[in-house]
Amino acid sequence: xxxxxNSENHLVNWGVKFQHESFKDKMxxxxxxxxxxxxxxxxxxxxxxxxxxxGKNQINSNRITGFIxxxxxxPVNIGSLYITxxxxxxxxxxxxxxLISPRAxxxxxxxxxxxxxxxxxxxxxxxxxxxxxxxxxDGTINYDxxxxxxxxxVLGSDYILTxxxxxxxxxxEAYYKSMSRLIPYNIDNVRIRYLSEQKSxxxxxxxxxxxxxxxxxxxxxxxxxxxxxxxxxIEGDGHGYIPRPTDQWLNFSLFFQDYFPGNPSYxxxxxxxxxxxxxxxxxxxxxxxxxxxxxxxxxxxxxLSKVIISPANKSEHRLAHHINDMWLSLEVFNLLNINNTIxxxxxxxxxxxxxxxxxxxxxxxxxxxxxxxx
Length: 374
Hints:
The chain has 374 residues and is mainly β. Helix content is 1%, strand content 67%.
C-alpha cells in the first residue's frame, strides 16, 4: 500500500509492505585437484578431495516494512529551502528485530544568477540479511544474525553552467558512512560468499563528480570520477582495519558522442572506463589474507552508426512505408585489446604452494548490427 497527501507547504508520503519468504536450500560442493601422477591431498589407497561442503536448509519467514515522510517548503529571502524528514521501519520474524531508521535531507536553492543548489542528507540505514547472508562457511544457518547498520551523511551540490552557448550540469557529492554489525564476505571467482559467523565494523568515505551536456551540439555526453576508500575491522581476528572487497579508490568513466558535420546521420560513440586495483586473496582463506591487488580495469569501446531510414526521411525511400527507423552500426568492444583480469584460478603444487593464474575477460570483439523498427 502507498499513499500521499499534498497541501500548500507539505507533501506527505507513506507506504506499507508485507512479504512472505520461503527458502529450500540443498548444497553439495567438492574440489578435486590433480596433476600428472599425483593429486592433492595425496594417498595411494583412496581418492581424497581437496575441499567438500554439504548442506541442507529450509526457512520460512515474514517481513513487514513501511515508511512515512514529509517534505516542507520554506520560502526564504534569498532562495527556497526544502526539508524532508521521515522514518522507515522493518520487522523480520526470523531475527525478531524491529528496526527504526530516521532520515532527513535539506535542499537549498539560492536566488543567484547561477543555477545552483546545495544538498545535505543523513540518517540511519539498516540492511536486513537475505538468505545468502545467513549461511555459515560450513553450510549451516546462523540464527543469531542481525541487520547491518550504517550512519550516513552526504553533502552535495548541483550546478547548471553554460559553455559554448550550451547547458551543462555538474554535480558533486562527498559522503561518509560509519558501519557496524557488518557481515564480512569473500569474492571467490564471480561468487560472493558471506562469513555470517563473523561480525565487523567499518567505514566508507569518498567523493563523486559528474558532468553531462552537449559537448557536441545536439547530442548528450558525460564523464564521471569517483574516489573512495572502504575498510573494516573483523572482531577477534587481531588484524585491525583491512580493505573491504570493494575497496577501489578510483573509478573513471566517459561517454562521448559526435557526428559528421553537415551529415548527422553518421554518428560515433566512444566510451572509456578505468577502475583501480581491487583486493584479492586465495580461495577459502581468511579475509585478512586478501593482501594482493588485481591489475586495474581499463577498457575503451567504439561505435559507428549510419541512420538509413528515420521519420524525417521516410518519404525518400519507396520501401519505408512500414518502417519507422532503420540504422546500421559497427561496434568495437575493448578497442585496445587489453587483458582485464576478472578473477584467478589458484594452482597448488605438491608442496602446498599456490600460484594465481589470471582469468581474463573477453578481448577485442566486433559486432555488426542492422536494426529495424516498425
